Fold these 3 entries.
Entry 1:
Amino acid sequence: MRCWSFFAAAAVLTMAGAAQAQDVKIGLILPMTGQQQSTGRQEAAAAKLYMAQHGDTVAGKKIELIIKDDQSVPDNAKRLAQELIVNEKVNFLGAGLTPSAMSMAPIATEGKVATVVMVSGTSVVTDRSPYYVRTSFTLGQQSGIIADWAIKNGSKKAVSVLSDWAPGAEAGKVFEANFIKGGGQVLDTLKVPLANPDFSPFLQRARDLQPDTLFVFVPAGQAGTFARQFSERGLDKSGIKLIGPGDIVDDDDLPTTGDALLGVVTAGMYSAAHPSQLNKDYVAAYKKASGHRANFISVGGYDGMHLIYSALEQTKGNTDADAVVGVMKGMKWESPRGTISIDPRTRDIVQNVYIRKVQKVNGEPWAIEFETFPAVKDPLKEAAAK
Ligand code: PHB
């Protein structure tokens, strides 16, 4: 209820400032500091790259990008969303990590601001506001496909090692449901704290259970630490197959993982090695602009900006949230990751999921795609609709 009165009072201020609001303002709320800061850095770099490549004027309106640091604290994200709407009068919001995206949702709804979910991979997030549209991914999209792949390729006994927060729970839930449905057995589900994780005791416990397959989800920013501890424990030479959604072979970390992840098979929506010309150009431009290899987090920000630019072109600069979300529904385009679209029913992303194996090319590990599942929807939303 606090939120209602907050916006009622703020409406007076908003109307007073409306006359000068010729620009389109986009406010991204990202973890720019704190332990998930690499995610904020990747998103911000990609959004800025998109603007550098496509200009800062759309449908005659000048675009202004504002980036706010929520330090991955959900209450900060909520407060920043209020401030961006009331003080900055933003026309669009960009949401980052799942807990922050969840806490901002009522603010986006009440403030009536179209919001692009650029990081979060948890299914339920886009249900939290009619103005939420996702350009990132869901963990379910990838985890179900890798479970089916593992069963098909002889896996029978798995242990899950999951980062202990909503995306990890979802990755585990979808993986385990598909793995068991395929006739496999899940020996245990081990949950690793999100903050400052020490994977070693969990990897030891997993190894002691003698699975043939280890399913692992760690979020962006943790693949490097995970890879180091995985090989320190000798698990890379244990004969146990390591699989997961794409996050465990994050391109931001892969260049520094040596041989630790060679041969690892994942189901992911983006690899910097995706062999399209558009992606080659993207990877080169991102590297030039940021000094890093483009990763699966970055494309959520790059495509998020594309979604906003294209919507503005279609609405001829009208930023009314219903109008904007209306044209975003069903939009389809070529991304560095392949063809993607927005499901008009759920406002969630529909995208290819690729099976990839980590291999060394020119001295560095890359996730090389070898099988494609086209136009994959979020399986949890599809199951709920049945
Ligand atoms: C999320 O916020 O849902 C999230 C972040 C990073 C990941 C996966 C999921 O790698």
Note: Residues 15-21 have pLDDT under 50 and may be disordered.
Entry 2:
Amino acid sequence: MAREKWASKLGFMLAAMGSAVGLGNIWRFSYVAGENGGGAFLLVYLFFVFVIGIPLLLTEVSIGRKAQSDVVGSFAKLSPGTPWFFSGFFGVAASFLILSFYSVVAGWSVYYLWKYVSGDFFTTPEGGYEAAFGGFISHTWQPLFWHALFMVMTIGIVLVGIKKGIEAANKIFMPTLAILLIGLAAYSLTLEGAMEGVRFLFQPNWSALTNPAVYLAALGQAFFSLSLGMGAMLTYGSYLSKENKLPSATIGIGVMDSFFAVISGIVIFPAVFAFGINPSSGPPLVFITLPGIFDQMPFGGIVGLVFFFALALASLSSAISILEVPVAYFMRIFHWSRKMASVLTGSIMFLLGLVVSLGYGVLAGVSPIGDRDIQESMDFIASNILLPLGGLAMALFVGWYFKKATALEATDLTGNAFGPIWYGIVKYIAPVLIILIFLNAIGLLGM
Ligand code: PHE
């Protein structure tokens, strides 16, 4: 059977944007930015996205398009008889770890959406949102139901295929998401006191830049948010043909991803400041703080409904790109049908996620790595170790294993004035920076 392809380059771009824009832009970005000084963090983050992230995105997509295979197969095909294909295993492993907790958190968003649809969250629940959230995530089977539902939706899209499943879904999701988030941002800006939030987001507090942790947080956020290093972008690139030019496409994806991060910052921070909440309240910002804020707003119930609908959509379009990584791999090595590969892989991820979810309930107190709970431990191994290692392998592969002419040709940069700049970044700058994140992740720098 011929390998599947995107129907159009636009379809690929929407799917790649769908992969990039997700919990990372809304849930993770807002609390990491809030904890790391707002405007200063935004500047450093944008600097990393444009200087390192987009060049690496181009690199990752180009490997897939050149090889026309999955994350393991691409390395094997382009460098037969060498151990490079091992780097693909980091991606496959990361996909299992990330999707199993991603689906649990995305399941929480779907639950919140339901609570707004049913009207329960139109008024503050008894004991407040903190108690409501805590009670929900520590319940044994309730969050599992929403995690299962989210996983079923993810599998349902992936098993249909590239064109009719992933591409078609993203063609609906992405424009909807854009309209919803821009609408929410516009509304947020009309709130009294909103300007303080805008200032927090756009007026850099330069003193935050003296803290080395800000740079590392920003670099890590750029990686996670652009879906880099796992092979999701590589696998999506493998459904492209040579006629689709990559540099403009990858710049478009990077710009859109940052745009959505900024937009969700504009949704969240003005509201946070208008209601006098501390922006550095951490991961619960979205699930505890925001509903409390929505409650006090005019039409807050509708705003909450739209917000959690957008969050669920954004998570779904990212989750399908994560599931596609092992699905493409298993379809090739085991000759499974797409249906079989999606259902089996998704079910294993559901089971792994079960452990993550129970980590907030009956398994509370289990901390596999240091003082991290189960979810944080999986995020740590995947995001801080496997993603940087995968990204490093891709940069070294294209920068050092390929000849310069091959690298430029693979990325459609032959004869392009940006070619040498891109090459220098991928060969030297990106590897050095990734090694720095990696050392930080395993605590060698102690920063
Ligand atoms: N980029 C996605 C987000 O921001 C998460 C993701 C990470 C997706 C790695 C694919 C690969 O939510």
Note: Residues 19-20, 22-25, 98, 224-225, 227, 230, 232, 318, 321-322 surround phenylalanine (CB under 6 Å).
Entry 3:
Amino acid sequence: MRIKKLFLFFFLCNQFLLVAQEEINIEEIISKLTLSEKVAMCHAQSKFTSPGVPRMGIPELYMSDGPHGIRPEINWDDWGYANWTNDYVTAFPALTCLAATFNPNLSYEYGLNLGEEARYRNKDILLGPGVNIYRTPLNGRNFEYMGEDPFLASTIVVPYIKGVQQNGVAACVKHYALNNQELWRGHIDVKVSDRALHEIYLPAFKASVEKGNAWAIMGAYNKFRGQHCSHNDLLLNKILKKMWDFDGVVISDWGGVHDSNEAINNGLDIEMGTPSDKSVSKRYPYNNNFLGKSFEKKIIEGEVEEAILDDKVRRILRLMKRTSLNKNRPFGNINSKKHYETAYKIASEGIVLLKNDNDFLPIDKNKKITIAVIGENAKKRMTLGGGSSELKAHKEISPLEGIEKEFNNAIVKYSRGYSSDANKNTNDLKKQALLLAKDADVIFFIGGLNKDSFQDSEANDRKSYDLPYDQSKLISQISKINKNIAIILISGNAVKTDWKNDVKSIIQSWYLGSEAGNAIASILSGKVNPSGKLPFSFPNKLNDNGAHYFGKSSYPGNGSSQTYLEDILVGYRWHETKKIPPSFSFGHGLSYTSFELFEINSNQKKYSLGENIEISCRIKNSGKYDGKEVVQVYIGKINSKVDRALKELKGFKKIYVKANHSENIKIKIPVKSLGYYDEMISDWQVEKGNYLIYVGNASDNICDKIVVTII
Ligand code: BGC
């Protein structure tokens, strides 16, 4: 034990010395750079690179989207794809799926494998992950994020970052902050209380910095309290760099910089995406950017201190030392068997079984039955479209392909049923689908949203909460002639499910990437027992969601600003506190087996501030399949002196239990995580008194409650 401690001590001393040496070296480099060289490092030199210092052997920084795979190569100075042939990649499942696994180990594997692909493609900075909180189901980019709960998002994002960065590739966590809708994203001024900011919208970014040690952060497009987030004094200088001690680089969102003085003074380090101006210089067309020549001039004229520039350069060099200048970083690899296995594992563990009447699923794959697969999403490619997360997938197994392969004893017939193409005659499609449905033994309806504009896609929000292209009507019509129907929803957002009583089963599938079809088929056949849990609520109707309840001033705003009137009551916090039941709740997800939770206890009844609450329970798999379950612990304050959510997720554990077996579970919750953000003192406060601990397997399915006291 003593030797171990001694070893650790020497190891830490050595690490400290190495870091100190690196910092001294960075200062040496800075002292040798000219003013122009330093300024150049603070802005782009092409769509996805920023310059190094050629005469000193300091290489350029190569960046790439993110967050589900490495984006195909873009032309040097325009948005066209470069049409390379060596940029085909593995498409990993969307981050909503990763969050739905409730499995931090898988998140690490995701990051590690993705980082390897980034490395192989010679990228130094991965523009991801995204951790904006899911506030409204209309946000076109929710699929790139990790759901509505700050604790879940924080827990999942940290291992992702560590995995990516282990490859010597920086994760650039985005979009900091409050970019919770795409509509008017370039200018909407978000008004939100300090409490909601710190309790809901910042924790995943904070965890990325403090626990994940993220090397880069991307400023968002929108404004917050009057300043654009890519040069926002409060967010970048005061909170990120001062309070959280962030030592990495702040990169603007592409074209998110609007003001030279703010960009210089308010914490931005690298300006990206501001258009190049070839009339200034063909060789250096980005020198006219906000952090370009005008920045240099201000320093020469004494208007700005050079120390401000040096701080930016110091951060950039530090990031380079961790990435492009790190001689020990691995070479990476791409499209390996391992990467597809990881993509499959995450996809099949993230799929959520929402409903399963009379154990309709799984369908025995040995049966010689007729399966009707209906719906455009059975074939539609989902790695294309959606905006900057678009990928050139080396392979993408469609749901139909996966089903045909898995159910090879059955006769599988396909009909499109509806179309996202407005010019298509949908009457014919509908007729054909109904005809097919009539004689089938089982129907898999594969629909939902897609990556087209105004669906799950960047730059716009959805226009309606309904399933698009008249799918609800089609589902109801099919169910009238054949009741044996399972709906497979492919989306990154909740949709209206007013047809849910007409069908036997519903599966929430996500944008699952390369292995999509294999993962979906494995769930349908029972090869994989579903264990995903919803990372966001499915309201019955749009107005049941907290952001929408207060009307236009809350979402989408008046065109120039908006106020988050639901405040801290986002997602299930709203549904639970206001007693507005959702159609499917946060944390909900069924299994083909059944689990029982019992002997739920806390290790003490009273705790003081520095202690951990340890919740223990037994879980029994009382069904006939082996499976995984997520035990979830929510906590609420009894008689709080401030408004609080009825319950908040504070801990969870995913566990594998064999059929007819039991396991013991322990979940540790630090007392300090029970605090609320006190605006009077601008800090967290843990109230003394009684707290109710809810233990269950969904936010609305609690098996037992315990009271503990904080003294
Ligand atoms: C997106 C970012 C992305 C960047 C570069 C922006 O439009 O908001 O998420 O990383 O483009 O493609």
Note: The mean pLDDT is 97.
